[in-house]
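ZP: hey, is the adenosine-5'-triphosphate complex queued? I don't see it on the tracker
AM: it wasn't, my bad. submitting now with these inputs:
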Amino acid sequence: MKRVGCQPAVNLKRSKDDEKDPIQVYCRLRPVSANVESPCVKVISDTEIQIYCPPNERGISREGQFSYKKIFTEYETQDMVFQDLGLPLVEQLLLGKSSLLFAYGISGSGKSYTMTGNQEDGGIVSRCFDVVFSSIKDFQARRFTFKPDKLNGYDVNSIEDAMMFQAEDFKNNVKNPSKTFKKREADINTPRVPFNYKVTDIDQDVAYSVFISYVEIYHNYVYDLLEDVSDGEIRRNSKIIREDSNGNMYVHGVNEQEVFNPGEAFELLRKGQLRKRTASTFLNMDSSRSHTVFTIRVVQAPLDVDGVNVIQDKKYTAVSQLSLVDLAGSERADKAKTTGQRLQEAGGINNSLSNLKQCLKILYENQSSSNLRNIAEKIPYRTSRLTHLFKSFFEGSGSIRMLICINPISEYAELLPVLQFGEMSGSVKVKRTTPLRMDIGLTPGRRKIVDMQSVNRIPCVFEEEPITPLDNKIKDNTKETCLTFLNLGPPLPELDVDDILDAEKRQELINVLEQRIKKKDELREVLINQSNEIRAEMVFLECNYANSKQEINSLQILRDQDTNKVKQYQNKAFLLENEMASLKRKLESLDSENKRLKSDLNAKENMLNQVSVDKDLLKQRYNTKIIKKQEQLSREFKDKWKVQENEFEAKLQDKKRKLKHIKNIAESIESLPSHFSRRTIKRTISDESLNKPEHVVNIKPSESKQIEHTQMTLRHLRSRRSKSCDPQERWIEHKPPAPIPLQTVMQPKMKKRKSVTKLTDAKTVTNNGASKYCLMTQGADEQGIPEAKLYKADIIQTMGGGAQIVFNDVETLKQDSPLGCSPVRNRIQAYNNEIRAHAGGSDDLNSRCYAIQGGNTPVSRK
Ligand SMILES: Nc1ncnc2c1ncn2[C@@H]1O[C@H](COP(=O)(O)OP(=O)(O)OP(=O)(O)O)[C@@H](O)[C@H]1O
């Protein structure tokens, strides 16, 4: 016969299975108050979560995305969380597989709430009780059938021994009522709604017992929370962790209490919780200061061949356990605002948690493909009691699930390591344990037959008692059988003691008895036949039952799948609703923002219009101003233009007059005597008389006594006055024989000079070392105004010993009287006469410039 579903966690050999499963990591967000928004947590889907860090002062923002098996949002109830997280572990527990579930997170993130819950709304632990006991209710072993052997195993007792222990326990409880944990008023008054679910897939030919232990790890010491402190003791002794013969870790000497119903289990949980170390911190009013481990053990052993007693062979006993761990919260002293003892506790908590992290990290690294050296690093399980206790789980004695608890209002820096640890743990794999198929050679359904037989027996004894729900057919058969049993043949003859001597009566009794024996044999045969029929029918029903069960199972799987799908859709709907709500809020705020911006825009547009109107007005004003200014300027310009025109006109007239005058002079020069005019004197008179052509006169050496004109060039005539005033220059002043004093302001100054009246010899020019020559003439202009002209020239020594006279300037000195009569006019007249007399009637210039002309014949002047 085969037995399915009994996995020996403790004392049956585990199947060698190299397949591994990852640690299943879940994440739960605790709710926040309605008016608080999570600053950095966002649930993206039912498996993904994102955290975001707003930009810091340097403008750097960060974000991280993490994925887990499932994310429970704040809307998911304890029931929903248990269904996904705890229920599969309870099912495994009843099938003989061990599991570990631990809750990890920052202080105040909801670990204890999820694991143990509160009076009204229990957590995973209390829901586990509900499911375990509702599933094994009909198959529970008599109390004290199993007894812990203190070596992490269980002894199996006979019914008699179990009853004896029961009686002893009863006596002890009567003697020491104080040691019995009394239900508190509050517990009685707050009825809990049990989780209504039954695991149907369990082995029914097995007797089950449930044991509970509850320990805490505080400051790296293990304490038993169910241990009663004896009268003299102040505190409980710490326990040690040991390894059993199968390599499983256990707390040595821990109290394992057998529980028969959820109420008892719940009481033990409460008892432990009251003893658990908690304290109030800034982060949590009721903060756990220790890690607590609540262990539910299911011990199971097969029934014997009769289906009544448990097989009393230890090797057939299977133990599976579910360890539910509520880790103390990791906390930062600055956040939790802890000091003194609380701070020390926090240090111990953080150390053990960091060792847990370290162990999982090394496990991960040992398993990862990047571990090229293929050398597994030693895992420091023993560094902390917490990891030491769960060493066997990490090495594959059961499956592991982890719940990351998140308080959405925590800071990014606090959440990041927690979420990272969760994600990393999800990559760690542990060996998969599969329930053993154990063949002990007994027929399945033994318990059922016994149950039915007991039903059969009942009508025989209590014929009229109602029969409990059974197949009608069986009911009829039973009645028939019972009636047949009552009719065993002809009634016994009524005999007295004396009748024994009567041979006839004796024979009659023998006949009746023989008939009855015969009848009894017949009935026995009928009974055997009917038993066989019933057995055959039972087998048939069993087959039917198995088929139906299979069908139910497949239907259940389908239903579970559908339920899962529905749940997923519900979750999605939740998320979408959340998102919709937040989008709606955003939309509303955007709408109001939009309205505000629109009104701003309108105000600005009005302002703009006002500005443009002002601008137009200003433009108009400026335009009129510009037009006025333009007009004024054009008037001014016209006036100025007129003034300047007049000035230019006057200047032009003046220049014209001057030109005319110069022309007269030129004409007068042309009309000089012929010997004088023979000299080549070229002259160009421009409007600006300063840029004058120069007269160049060549004065030959004395033998020829003739001055030849070679050329006439233009020279710079600037600073004429200064030239004439240069004190270093030696001048030959060629004056008229009787010059009239000019009495003008601009008198020529020639400091070094030789004055001559007549130039008859060229040596006069060459021998004196003179470099300048000035010929002065005196006369009157057309109006008779006296004027003196100074013809100036440079004397340039030539190679031949002669000199060249280059005329480069003409100065006209004129004196005009506003009264129209010049005081010098008469003197001029007299002078001209005198000259004429002096020159014997010949032209003055011709006679005076004999040497320059180079000829002896004076030229008469026209
Ligand atoms: N899902 C939830 N729904 C309602 N209340 C919650 C939930 N999660 C946590 N709380 C509340 O938040 C508070 C802190 O939770 P809890 O004590 O479970 O935190 P913790 O993580 O165990 O903290 P510590 O590590 O300090 O023990 C409790 O008052 C609890 O009732």
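AM: back. Residues 30-31, 105, 107-113, 284, 286-288, 328-329, 405 surround adenosine-5'-triphosphate (CB under 6 Å).
ZP: great, adding it to the tracker
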